[in-house]
Write a structure and sequence with these properties.
The protein has 261 residues and is an alpha/beta fold. It has two domains: 6-119 and 215-253, D-Maltodextrin-Binding Protein, domain 2; 123-209, D-Maltodextrin-Binding Protein, domain 2. It is 44% helix and 22% strand. The protein has ten helices and 15 strands. It has helices spanning 2-25, 27-34, 60-72, 83-91, 106-111, 152-159, 170-179, 189-198, 226-241, 244-253, and strands at residues 36-41, 50-51, 57-58, 75-80, 97-98, 102-103, 112-114, 119-121, 123-128, 144-147, 163-166, 185-188, 204-209, 214-217, 219-221. The strands form six sheets. A three-stranded parallel sheet has the order 4-1-5. A hairpin with a 5-residue loop joins strand 2 (50-51) and strand 3. The relative contact order is 0.17.
């Protein structure tokens, strides 16, 4: 009798867990139940996510996240943190998504599901103006670069044989190049061009660009993601069709990076 009760209890528990898991596993339902979507971003990477002269969080990704939240019918809560911590928080469920110029890579696809791309960028190789030894990515062999930890730029630098120092913001990487602490830095081409438009006197130059454009997308943790991915993809398609994505891109980058060229 004791054995029968134990098996019944286990069966009931398994049914409960299955039902609860199905209900709680749907990320879109959870977000709509909360009435908000929690978005992680750095807040230090202009013009993607940064603080303007008034201290307000601004940027291309900041506005894109708000537009998507509006389409989902929920409010948006921004949480700022260092690059690597954004993904740790996503994996533990602290954040619903990371909107921070995230490029799709094969390694990341193993860990996360991705929405449709909403941006397309190339990686720029940046050095001081008087640097004549680095003119292409292959010249990074044995050199020093600076980039955010676990970023695609860090891995690309290492791929070409550079020793990479980890920093938290674009301005820090530029400072390290200018001071000679590193030989070069890699970053999104649009970010570098925006930096140069604000700092035209900066003693740096772009010497090379990757040939193919990378896809910028939104990573979502895999469990229960299907409905949320579909809803965000629908939102992105509508925002592209009505010109909202293009308008925000031109506002921050001076060009449309939301369509593949």
């Amino acid at each position: 009798m004791k054995k029968i009760i134990t098996l019944a209890a286990v069966a009931a528990l398994m049914l409960c867990l299955a039902a609860c898991g199905k209900k709680d596993g749907n990320q879109l339902d959870s977000i709509k139940s909360k009435g908000k979507i929690v978005v992680a971003m750095e807040g230090t990477w202009a013009p993607w996510t940064y603080h303007d002269e008034t201290g307000k969080l601004a940027g291309f990704d900041t506005e894109v996240a708000k537009l998507i939240a509006d389409k989902l019918g929920v409010s948006v809560e921004y949480v700022e943190g260092e690059w690597d911590g954004l993904f740790a928080g996503l994996e533990t469920g602290r954040y619903d998504m990371v909107v921070n110029g995230v490029e799709i890579t094969d390694e990341r696809k193993e860990k996360y599901d991705f929405t449709e791309a909403y941006g397309f960028i190339r990686t720029a190789l940046v050095v001081k103006k008087d640097n004549t030894t680095i003119t292409k990515f292959e010249d990074l062999q044995g050199k020093k670069t600076a980039n955010s930890f676990n970023s695609t730029y860090m891995y690309l630098g290492e791929q070409y044989g550079a020793t990479v120092s980890n920093v938290d913001s674009l301005s820090e990487t530029i400072d390290m190049v200018l001071s000679g602490r590193v030989d070069a830095t890699l970053n999104a081409d649009v970010s570098i061009y925006e930096y140069l438009s604000v700092h035209p006197e900066a003693d740096i130059k772009v010497v090379a660009l990757t040939t193919d454009a990378s896809e910028v997308s939104i990573p979502i943790r895999k469990e229960g993601s299907a409905e949320l991915i579909a809803a965000i993809n629908k939102a992105i398609a509508e925002l592209r069709a009505d010109g909202s994505l293009k308008a925000v891109s031109e506002k921050y980058f001076g060009q449309d990076i939301t369509t593949k060229k």
